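Hi L.,

You mentioned the student needs an example of a multi-chain input paired with its predicted structure. This one should do, with 503 residues in total across all chains.
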Amino acid sequence: MRLTPGPRRAIDLDAVDLFDLDLYTAGDPHPIWDEMRERAPLHHQVLPDGREFWSVTRYEDVCRVLGDHREFTSERGTVCTHLGQDDVAAGTLLTSTDPPRHTEVRRAIGARLTARAVAPWEDRIRQSVVRFLEPALDGAPFDLAEQALLLPAIVTGPLLGIPERDWAELVQLTAMVTAPSDPHFQMGGEAATLAISHHELVTYVTDRVKRRRASGDTDGSLLDHLMSVHAGDAPLTDEEIALDGYSILLGANVTTPHTVSGTVQALIERPEQFDKAQADPTLIPNLVEEGLRWTSAACNFMRYAVDDVQIGGGTIPARGAVVAWIGSANRDASRFPDPHTFDITRDNAKRQVAFGFGPHFCIGAPLARLTLRIFFEELLQRCGSIELAGEPEHLRSHFIAGLTHLPIVAQERRTP
Amino acid sequence: MDQQAASSSAPVSLGQEIAELWGEHLDGRTVGVDDDFFALGGNSLTGIKIIDRVAQDYDVRLSVRDFYLAQTPARVAELIERARAAA
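Structure written out for the whole complex:
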């Protein structure tokens, strides 16, 4: 989807189709969300097949829906591509589990992903990023969006305990999960694409666990941690290990690349911001926060109302599905003045909710922040200039906002 | 479901066996040989169990992709027949 909105246009909110994939491939959702925040902060849509959902778009409401599991449960599914089908992994998969079980498992897994726990990886990540950037700097066209899909794998593979030879396939599978209708990734129909990718990812983790148990090898990776950690009084079940391992692979792979390419695109379009960051590298942590706000790669998450609930000036009935539009919350003018201006010096950029909000706040956020900071430090240190070398193409997904192609030409910086 | 509509070259009985096996993993509902896996509410966790059962009962390890692209008991029966013929 376009991250810099086009001109304001007349929008009929009763006719808007937020699940229209063309809107994200070729359209411009931001003016629609602007209108929704202003005029219909609780919006209701019925799909042609009869499924229905409510949408919240204001910052405060998005935080409330994502943050309060008593009113809005995760245990019937959290991803809008599955609207209407209760989640088969509820109560087992961490993202589809409410407190108190969620709290136990989250604490156990999260201990290995805190900022302090990932800090020792900085040098290794930097080496990987430098290697990643090398082919981009020779002055020939480089498709950043396509290449960036592999970046999390390159960076986090050793940390997760996944050998490099498997990464290309895993990246393909995780992309299928997030954009089952994108022609780059589709296999058969949408349902088949989702089932194949879920199945192969879950069995991949299961097989690795089996092999590791058989050999007794340990490497201190996150996968080892999942196999040995206790949540509550007991180790995780095999099903929890398989599903949470899957979920961690997914989370690592499918968002960071789009934040990288979307933020680089924003910098290409605004050379003055690029120059500012290059002149003062201490701005880079804030550039990362503004990039996260601007790109909002996880465009939304879904919850289900437990009982009738008042929000956004209306009522969501008990058992109704509600989509919390993170991409919209991050452009709420009441929180972020001039929200459609990309400004690396924005003073509250850190209030962005690109990682979500509340109990399900992204468990990998410290690692993502570290990776993004290193990426932009190295990029700005090494690139004198970056230009577009072709038309960007957008991911066909209403769940993940991203780019499939961003051809760039970068010139190496002469006097770093 | 009209079984004559099956476009399968596999014996109908194998298709029916597979349909029954699916039924067991789909809340015991009745499944026809040409019913669509996803329309029946099938998902990857059901698929994992069904593929394991097929491996156990028929000694054929179906490819994950072939299984979901086949999508009906009749066509899955065909996959099993083909794998047996090739063995």
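You could point out the following to them. The helical segments of chain B are 12-25, 44-58, 64-70, 73-86. The longest helix of chain B spans residues 44-58.

Best wishes,
N.
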